[in-house]
Amino acid sequence: MKFNISERYNCVVVELKGKIMGGPDADVFKTELQKLIDAGKTKLIIDLENVKFMNSSGLGILIGGLTTMRKAGGDIKLANADKRISSLLMVSQLNTVFDHHLSLDSAIKAYDEV
Prior knowledge:
By secondary structure, the chain is of the alpha/beta class. It has one domain: 2-Layer Sandwich (Transcription Regulator spoIIAA). It is 44% helix and 32% strand. It has four helices and five strands. It has helices spanning 24-38, 56-71, 83-91, 104-113; strands at 2-8, 11-20, 43-54, 75-79, 99-101. Strands 1-2-3-4-5 form a five-stranded mixed sheet, sandwiched between helices. α1 links the parallel β2 (11-20) and β3 (43-54). α1 (24-38) runs parallel beside α2 (56-71). The termini are far apart. The mean pLDDT is 93.
């Protein structure tokens, strides 16, 4: 798993790339989230557009990140999941836990509406 972090308007966008399968990536991701929280940046959007594959451990990374952000008073929204990832979210019923948007712009606007 690779990722890019950027800021857009009042949100931090984490663009994930490749295969999301847990392992050492989970620790790296958690460390980066903690850095964002320490900097007061708790409105996060995870862009899944370039994710080719995700397994249950990958879902665990997302759930862990959501828990961490919510404990810090923030949130994570998902954007741009393809049909396979959307299906995985539905089967695991995580589509009821995460606020998922079809585009990055939609996810950004959702933070403004809160």
